[in-house]
Amino acid sequence: MEPIRFLHTADLHLDSPFKGMASAGPDELARLQQSTFAAFDRFIAYAVKERPDFIVIVGDLYDGEDRSLRAQIRFQQGMQQLQKVNIPVYLSYGNHDHLAGRWTRVSLPENVHVFSEQVEQKQLMIRDEKICLHGFSYPQRHVKESMIRQYPKASEGIHIGLLHGSVAGDAEHAVYAPFTISELQDKHYRYWALGHIHKRQVLSQEPPIVYPGNIQGRHRNEQGLKGFYDVSLTPINDSMKFVATSDVVFTTLTVSCKGIEYADDWISACQEAIDQLTAETGSVVVELVMEHTEGLTKDLAKAEAEWLDILREQYEAMEPFVWISAIEWPKNSYSVVPNSLLGPVEKTISSWETDDWNDLVKEVYSHKAGRYLEALTPADFERLKQQATALLENEMLKEG
Ligand SMILES: [Mn+2]
Q1: What is the pTM of this model?
Q2: Which parts of the sequence belong to the Calcineurin-like phosphoesterase domain (predicted)?
């Protein structure tokens, strides 16, 4: 039997505004705002070339509940391309593009089948196999109840569930339409196509319960390649191929400054590392993490922000696109005193109680002049603590 082949995607977040990228200039922001569309175009191009039997899109097609007109037009154009090559699309809306939002309506072609706000079943025939798809769209932004209870158990045919939601009790994400893995397994479907969580993950193999993640990262917490799954179901084994679509990859890059003394060498070292990265992944928003900065410390202390600006200028208006979101220097990077030395001393000082301090200063008070001194209060000890730490750091730095 020829496998049943479909593409599973979710969380397109078309026309995402990249609000978190406040550090980027207007040109960079405009470039980033194109990325969700570019990733979507890659998805459509792949489908047109590969001709899967059908496509499922599991919520959050649009980033905003107003479904920006630009996003709708681009989505419509993508669906029309799929219609031309006879690929049916089954989609549900999620918490970002719920049905209660106000938006200008743009019609979708006939190959597109939209799940309503009730859990419902849609059927199609693929080479004499009956495929049953189950899903629903969010009637409003917050769907807190467990929608999984409304999904029917599988009967004859190949059943696939579309569900935009999260595992009950998830501490990291806002929980929408919560479910447990065993609740999904109890339905005896062949595949669970999930959406909502932007991190790609396979929650179970038997049957596959899958978050494809979003198709384009939108901030530093959505790192690495993003994309969708190309799924083939056969009676013997299923295959799930991840296909990357991200136009700009959010990532972190460590740069060693070992042996570097001069700023221009540092720029070269960073550029070399970035060029190697872009050769592998294409455009990036990258956070640089510096290590072994001992040789650079004196110059750096004066011009950390300037160094970032100069490095950014090297990539202005370039493709692949590079935006350096931040440079992270090691803590105490200006210090030639190893943390391993300063740390324990500071820790000891801060652990001293009033009695310890009294013990320390008792010689001063036992001296003849002691009678002219006022007794020290706990607030005095606190001040002493801070001053001692600062003095220690300063004195040790001077040595370098
Ligand atoms: Mn989402």
Answers
A1: 0.81
A2: 4-199
